[in-house]
Write a structure and sequence with these properties.
Elements (H helix, E strand, L loop, with lengths): L1 H43 L2 H12 L7 H16 L4 E13 L5 E7 L2 E4 L2 E3 L11 E8 L4 H10 L3 E4 L10 H6 L3 H11 L5 E5 L27 E4 L1 H13 L4 E5 L3 E15 L4 E11 L9 H21 L5 E8 L7 H12 L3 E7 L7 E7 L2 H8 L2 H4 L6 E4 L15 E7 L4 H4 L12 H21 L6
Parallel strand pairs: 5-6, 6-7, 7-8, 11-12, 11-13, 13-16, 14-15
Antiparallel strand pairs: 1-10, 2-3, 2-9, 4-8, 5-9, 10-12, 14-16
Helix pairs in contact: 1-8, 1-13, 2-8, 8-13
Length: about 475
């Protein structure tokens, strides 16, 4: 018995030693592979040059526009040049909204005494009458405030939603989420009380003269019942608010010429490297190719698109052949419809494709800080075990939370969704505004983000996901 016990104990010790040795070997291999990814991204990457072309040769890429189609053609051509196993376009019908001639606005303190202020039409808004709209202004802080005034005080007026983003929120996306309802639904709700127009404070933590556009919705309101909606810059919002305190009877004038057309055909751009071991398991990385039209969409979301393309480029550069199929998906129409994300998920479901992981970059090209994950407890435990691999690159944030709008429709029990989380403190200075332009993207920060994404994709490819029992 003692002899058998000694043999059994020896076997256990040997197995433990083998496990420790295997783990240490895997750890070293992962460290080396991730180091190669970062070094290649910083020395041989293409993301910055791709973004330069998207931003400065094509510009803003509003869904349904000529520029959006140019971006589709360009990114497909660049993916073709990488030597991927397959590149294709996925048709999707998208809305076509056109801003028209530049907007114009002022407020009038006394007859003939006016102050011009910068505004821009919200995406999806109807136009004003040809002569514009001029009316008294009612300032409110929220949609709920409308009920305290009622139709008697709001009918025939312009409603001014002036709730700012909360500057005390460290997570700027939380600050945005907590006040964006006034932009999205303000016109619909104010119109129900007889208001003739809506002006909304820009979703921006900084005081500046840039109005920030963004999507808005009338719900199922008939076209004839819709009222025009515009964003006003933060500086002008403060000025208007102060003027109203001194003289509540001042009048506001604005004119905009936007128009909604019928839907048009556009495309998601997709490229893939076929998996060598588990080709049926699909992992995607992506961003949205469309942008608003005021700037050139460098941070939102040109950066995410070129970083996603870079993931596959980096794997080709270092000669890494993934076990699982890896796709880059450049989604169309995130900004004003999410048609691309919904279409991709719909076709994936129709083909019974097995998606196991999806990563989106849609928070700007700033320094990467980590990721947020929509994942099961078991998968999140595995993810947390990789934290030490990212510490040398100052990536420290691995948290549970939302991933990305375009990959959200893929959500299910057998998939991990992730979102790249760059430093967000400057993001809303540029979000949906004229100053979302190429010169505000730092080359090194953009490349670090791409390398961080590629490293996470590599780890999921190596170890897969933990399936629910």
């Amino acid at each position: 018995m003692k002899s058998n016990y000694k043999v059994s104990k020896t076997i256990k010790v040997a197995l433990l030693f083998l496990c420790i040795t295997h783990y240490a070997s895997s750890q070293v291999n992962d460290e080396n592979q991730i180091k190669r990814i970062y070094e290649t991204a910083l020395s041989q990457g293409k993301s910055y040059d791709w973004l330069n072309y998207l931003s400065n040769q094509i510009g803003g890429r509003l869904s349904g526009s000529v520029q959006a189609q140019q971006a589709i053609n360009y990114t497909k051509s660049e993916l073709d040049s990488l030597g991927l196993d397959r590149v294709w376009l996925q048709p999707v019908m998208v809305p076509k909204w056109v801003r028209g001639t530049p907007e114009f606005a002022y407020f009038e303190t006394t007859p003939g005494v006016t102050t011009n202020v910068p505004v821009c039409a919200l995406g999806g808004s109807v136009a004003t009458p040809l002569q514009g709209i001029k009316a008294e202004v009612i300032e409110v802080q929220s949609i709920d405030d409308l009920a305290t005034y009622g139709e008697a005080k709001l009918k025939g007026k312009i409603v001014f939603f002036n709730r700012p983003m909360n500057a005390t929120e460290i997570n700027t996306f939380s600050a945005y989420s907590n006040c964006v309802d006034q932009r999205y639904s303000g016109a619909k709700e104010a119109g129900a009380y007889g208001a003739v127009g809506v002006i909304v404070r820009s979703m921006n933590l900084r005081l500046d003269d840039y109005p920030h556009t963004g999507s808005m919705s009338y719900g199922d309101l008939a076209v004839n019942d819709r009222i025009p909606a515009a964003a006003i810059s933060t500086n002008a919002a403060d000025l208007l608010s102060t003027a109203l305190k001194l003289n509540p009877e001042i009048k506001f004038y604005f004119k905009q010429n936007c128009k909604q057309f019928t839907d048009v055909e556009s495309y998601n751009v997709i490229g893939e490297i076929k998996g060598s071991t588990y080709p049926e398991e699909i992992m995607i990385v992506g961003g949205h190719l469309d942008s608003w039209d005021l700037g050139d969409g460098s941070h939102d979301d040109g950066a995410g698109c070129v970083q996603s393309m870079e993931v596959l480029n980096l794997f080709k550069k270092i000669g890494y052949r993934p076990k699982r199929t890896i796709r880059v998906v450049l989604f169309m129409n995130e900004e004003n419809g999410l048609r691309g994300g919904n279409k991709y998920a719909e076709e994936a479901k129709g083909k019974n494709e097995k998606h196991v992981f999806a990563l989106e970059s849609d928070a700007g090209g700033f320094s990467p800080r980590g990721f947020s994950f929509d994942a099961s407890d078991a998968n999140f435990t595995q993810i947390k075990s990789w934290e030490n691999l990212f510490e040398p690159y100052l990536i420290h944030m691995f948290v549970r939370g939302s991933s990305g709008a375009d990959i959200g429709p893929l959500k299910g029990d057998n998939i991990v969704l992730a979102g790249l989380r760059p430093d967000s403190q400057r993001y809303f200075d540029h979000h949906h505004a004229e100053n979302d332009t190429f010169e505000h993207v730092n080359k090194r920060e953009l490349e670090l983000g791409a390398a961080t994404m590629a490293s996470l994709v590599y780890l999921f490819d190596q170890y897969g996901i933990v399936n629910p029992k």
